[in-house]
Specification:
11 helices; Rossmann fold; about 40% helix; four-stranded mixed beta sheet; single chain; about 350 residues; Four Helix Bundle (Hemerythrin (Met), subunit A); globular
Amino acid sequence: MKPILSPIRRLESGAVAMLDQRRLPHARVEVILETPAEVAKAITDMVIRGAPAIGVAAGIGLALGASLRARTGTFDVADFYRDCDVMAASRPTAVNLFWAISRMRTLFDRLVAEGADGRAIAAALEVEAQAIFDEDLAQNLAMGEFGASLIPDGARILTHCNTGSLATAGWGTALGVIRSAVKQGKNIKVFADETRPWLQGARLTTWELMEDGIDVTLIADGAAGHLMQRGEIDLAIVGADRITANGDTANKIGTYTVACLAARHGLPFYVAAPLTTVDLTLATGAEIHIEERPAHEVRTVFGHPIAPENVAVRNPSFDVTPADLISALVTERGIARAPYGPSLASLFSGAPSPGRVNP
């Protein structure tokens, strides 16, 4: 396989370069961002997406702001808190965003209380942001190894949305599991559904897998049930944007449909996500705030109208899959199975709780 791709990197100038995922697969273009507000807007505008990648971006964006002000002699405590608020408002559902903000803010508060100056604080935040990046990549690689044990040789796998390198610091969650299974020598065939309205499956998942030489076939969102009924799919594996204490899982809209279809046909339905995606402060999925995005995303396909201009639209970006439809949760610390309350709690044993910052 090719070297691990990452959707975000720091430049020597101090700015942030993000691979513009709105332009893939037809153009590989980087967007250069110089302020925390620009990083937050890039998250909102889907330049970067995927729960772990959003968390990584938030950490880097906050470090960017502190470093910029330290270099220009304009460092102010209140500015950092404003940066946190702007970053938190960028996307409301993915818990990794708020986990990263909380982690950076905790370090900032401690250093301020200790009397550290602006340059020292900025340097420490840079180190912390890099640690968030490095830890996410390591978590993905570990998750891939655990998850690969669930994938039989010859498996035909359905995946939804994009859960690969583009959605993380690198390697991926659900796609990371697939990559690890292929790396072990297993013969894998992937079905990637389109994932309307942003078409992350069609544009991003197929591109990543083709780049790695992994057998992938694109299908329409509505074709999954047909292929399951015909015995052409063996299992489904997806990522997650937030997992509650009981194992209920929020993921890209359409995930619940895939889980229901898998249950109807007696197929395993797996979720792969780092423990930073688990929100133990929420008891069930009913408490997850579901982001609703603009109507034009459904009325159009990348600016091209496909529906009456004024038709009413509902555009929830995520849905919640109940824990009883999930065969296993794959994390960097192992595989959790029902009942998920105690199973997840045991994985957190000895690990810091991800906590939550309210959007």
